[in-house]
Amino acid sequence: MSNTKAENCNNSELRARLIAFYLPQFYPIPENDKWWGKGFTEWTNVAKAKPLFRGHYQPHVPADLGFYDLRVHETRIAQAQLAKEHGIEGFCYWHYWFGGGKRLLERPFNEVFKSGEPDFPFCLGWANESWSGVWHGCPDRVLINQTYPGTKDYERHFYKILPALTDERYITIDNKPIFIVYKPLNLPDSIQFTDLWRELACKSGLKDLYLIGITLNDQWSPIQDGFDASCFHNPGITFNKLKINAQIKTAHNMFKLFTNKLCKINKYFFSKPEIYNYRDYIEIALPNLPKPFDQYPCLVPNWDTTPRCGVSGKVLINSQPILFGKHLEDAIKQINNNIQEKRIIFIKSWNEWAEGNYLEPDCKFGDAYLKEIKKSIFC
Questions:
Q1: What is the pTM of this model?
Q2: Which parts of the chain are beta strand (E)?
């Protein structure tokens, strides 16, 4: 069995293969300077966040790694060491290819690849969606469009990442490099894309690719669209099932009874984001397995998009490390009957600080979430 081409840790001692999504937007780029102001990074939103209701945990302040810059080599080394020590197999770096060769935020991964450090497993996930101002209160503002110019562009895209796919650190299943597509249904012709990439992979000396599509529909069959497996789009797939908190439901009832106080009630209740309880969330966050194809769960340790969206955001309240540990245990039970290579659990995310979902230590919980992983993942 070969989980990665480089044995960076003894995976035979691990109960599951944990892959954490990794956001590269922690260094300035010219495009963000133009759109949001000089020096903008995700930390800009994180640092300015404020509590929006009683008990709201904001701002989230990083601890061990600080407000880092991903252009710094030592930061990337420290992240990998921290992840490895606690049983995470590797990072899935978000990769941005907008069509026509246009890329953004590629520097951190390029430096990881070219330098050979950190010596820590990785794979790539194509975040194939347009960027808009939705995260910053400007939903109608399109910053850059995701385009699909055709097969020539697919081919150009493949050969651009081919060196990474053949790297000794690249995460594989059955010696097939894993490649993730964030929105597979956005592809104009997914079969055309997957067939072409598989053909190019074989021509380049690879056994094949192992293609995973992220889905908001737990009934989506990846096989019919040319993929090998699906991964649940959490928390989105679960938020669609949860009822909004009792306070807002009460507000709707109050509107019916006290129409003369409508304005005051609206101001009080609807100046808040949508609020969900983490304990309720984890009870329904893992759709039933198995299906007649490979499916992988996706866990979130927490969620709070108010640093980006303000009162338009969504918040999970009362997340605790011990509850995340329970969530992880439930996921491990789900994939326990898979062969070892397919005992994969994705975690969203390693460092999505402006969405409140991260594993890196913060000033409130320290490394407690990572300790829950370490406690659960080692046999």
A1: 0.90
A2: 17-22, 90-97, 103-104, 122-126, 131-133, 138-144, 172-173, 176-181, 210-215, 229-232, 274-277, 294-296, 298-299, 314-317, 344-347, 351-352, 357-358
